[in-house]
Amino acid sequence: MPETETAAILRYTARILTERGIHTGPQFAAPDGSLDICAAIYLAAYGKQPAEFETDEDYSTTLIELSYEARQAIKALSASLPTEPPTVESAPGYEEPSHLEHVSRWASTPQFSDEQPPSPTEVIDHLVRTADALDSAPQTLAA
């Protein structure tokens, strides 16, 4: 079965995070080269890392959210997590799930107060398992 684009992005993200490390602090990137999981997904999708990932969280969030390929990979990863994504108000009176926040929080914070966040190995393994699941799922044709 051929590899889907989203699965390829998630597998490449796993490689990026293995090489560079997972950044869990403020911003989307650290001076040491480590990346927030969503920034790594963006890098995997586009092959470039904007300098703003280290300096401007709002711009970075918008850039990632406007990226169709990154957004699809983040949404697929969010769907594979055992928790529901938080909702954010996107317009007055209208809330929608924030898959980006869901994935970033999952990789950097404990689910429950008595736990640790997932280890880098657990995050990377989950990325690969999600990619494998996407590739083994029946493909539907767009109408």
Broad structural category: mainly alpha
Stretches with pLDDT under 50, minimum 5 residues: none
Number of helices: 6
- Kindly report the spatial arrangement of strands forming the biggest sheet: 1-2
Radius of gyration over all CA atoms, rounded: 15 Å
| Tertiary shape | globular
Largest sheet: 2 strands, antiparallel
Q: What would the average pLDDT be, to the nearest integer?
A: 90
SSE series: HHHHEEHH
Determine the fraction of residues in helical runs and give it as a percent range: 40-55%
Q: Give the total of beta strands.
A: 2
Distance from first to last alpha carbon: 21 Å
Q: Give the strand content.
A: 5-15%
If you had to describe this structure to a student in words, what would you say it looks like?
The protein has 143 residues and is mainly α. 52% of the residues lie in helices and 6% in strands. The chain is built from 6 helices and 2 strands; from the N terminus they run ααααββαα. It has helices spanning 5-20, 37-46, 57-65, 68-79, 99-108, 120-136, and strands spanning 87-91, 94-97. It has a two-stranded antiparallel ribbon with strand order 1-2. Helix 1 crosses helix 2 (37-46) and helix 1 packs antiparallel against helix 6. The chain is globular and about 40 Å long. The protein starts with a helix and ends in a 7-residue tail after the last helix. The model has no long low-confidence stretch (mean pLDDT 90).
